[in-house]
């Protein structure tokens, strides 16, 4: 079985879960060819990501002229298919709000993908994210008839389901994957009822081999929290400085380490200064997988004040590391975080509720925090073992190829 994996940007620090999924599939004997439109090579810090870069075929690296000529040649060889795909791209672009040119570029990329899938004798293409990778996969299907599927993560796909043509993408796919029950419910909203049986849940997974030992909590003189992820509006890090200021005013000693980077960094730094809590924050930038595990080991709990999510990998990794989680009561979070059992759930966008959870965690005895971490570890290892989840995906691929 030869599977093509398709992403927009790969590898990159925020999608290590895809790399983990691919590796688990390969360990089960499946051949995976990586396709991506592009990759930000300079942003890669993890040695495994650097190796993955060398194994990934970047479609845009073929160059605009070569891609255009390939699309022209494809259209001359298969005029009816090309006309049908071009019409679909045009309609999708119109629905996305004056994005026709962008979707015609997707068509050119799809023609390249269709040619390479045929040359490499790939049996099936799987796209990660229901945004432009799924659009390119759909157009490739229109051009060549090759089967495709895609994984929807959220929240971006659910922000613009009509503009992203989720209904059409599900309708033409062999199957679609959601990473949580919440995600599946959102796909149910936009897919035709007759296509609901195509929609399966395959969780993003953690590698149990990376979390084999129990790591003791730090000595608790202050509550040490860690936040891991892109500095983006949906992640809610802008709320942290105010929440920390409120918690400290109530007498709680709190320190937050922010692991990651992104477009919101200047605003986050400004908020830290505005609330006069610079001594309570450390910003590390992106870290490799070992660095992330070390940051979790140095923390008592993960804090995730997100406004929108799918089902965050960092929650899984924190639980696997035996750490309690403070998260917002949104999307897939409640499917893993059980309030008062392995962490605390708070309303999104409420700095006082977030501060109260910090205060509660600060006042919680170390033994109780450790027990909450153990409960989370057991839950995530039972539900998110990457080898089990890759096995589910492999069976879906087998079924799709047999259609």
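^ structure tokens above, recovered residues below v
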């Amino acid at each position: 079985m030869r599977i093509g994996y398709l992403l927009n940007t790969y590898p990159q620090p925020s999608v290590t879960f895809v790399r983990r999924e691919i590796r688990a599939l390969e360990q089960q004997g499946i051949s995976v060819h990586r396709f991506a439109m592009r990759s930000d090579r300079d942003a890669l810090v993890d040695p495994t990501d650097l190796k993955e870069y060398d194994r990934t075929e970047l479609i845009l690296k073929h160059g605009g002229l070569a891609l255009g000529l390939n699309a022209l040649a494809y259209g001359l060889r298969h005029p009816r298919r090309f006309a049908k795909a071009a019409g679909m791209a045009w309609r999708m672009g119109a629905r996305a709000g004056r994005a026709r040119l962008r979707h015609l570029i997707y068509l050119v990329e799809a023609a390249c993908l269709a040619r390479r899938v045929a040359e490499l004798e790939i049996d099936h293409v799987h796209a990660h994210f229901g945004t432009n990778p799924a659009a390119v996969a759909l157009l490739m299907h229109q051009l060549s008839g090759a089967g495709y599927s895609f994984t929807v993560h959220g929240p971006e796909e659910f922000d613009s389901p009509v503009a992203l043509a989720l209904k059409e993408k599900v309708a033409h796919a062999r199957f679609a994957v959601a990473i949580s029950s919440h995600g599946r419910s959102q796909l149910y909203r936009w897919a035709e009822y007759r296509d609901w049986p195509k929609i399966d849940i395959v969780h993003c997974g953690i590698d149990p081999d990376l979390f084999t030992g129990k790591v003791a909590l730090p000595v608790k003189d202050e509550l040490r929290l860690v936040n891991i992820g892109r500095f983006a509006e949906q992640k809610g890090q802008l709320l942290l400085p105010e929440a920390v200021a409120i918690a400290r005013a109530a007498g709680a000693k709190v320190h937050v380490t922010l692991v990651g980077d992104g477009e919101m960094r200047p605003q986050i730094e400004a908020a830290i200064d505005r609330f006069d809590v610079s001594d309570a924050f450390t910003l590390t930038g992106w870290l490799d997988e070992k660095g992330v595990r070390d940051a979790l080991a140095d923390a008592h709990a993960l804090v995730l004040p997100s406004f929108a999510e799918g089902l965050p990998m960092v929650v899984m990794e924190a639980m696997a590391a035996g750490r309690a989680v403070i998260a917002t009561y949104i999307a897939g979070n409640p499917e893993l975080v059980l309030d008062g059992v392995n962490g605390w759930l708070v309303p999104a966008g409420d700095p006082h509720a977030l501060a109260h959870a910090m205060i509660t965690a600060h006042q919680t005895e170390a033994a109780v925090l450790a027990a909450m971490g153990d409960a989370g570890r057991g839950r995530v290892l039972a539900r998110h073992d990457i080898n089990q989840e890759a096995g589910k995906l492999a069976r879906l691929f087998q079924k799709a190829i047999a259609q």
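The domain at 2-205+385-402 is CATH 3.40.50.2000 (Rossmann fold).
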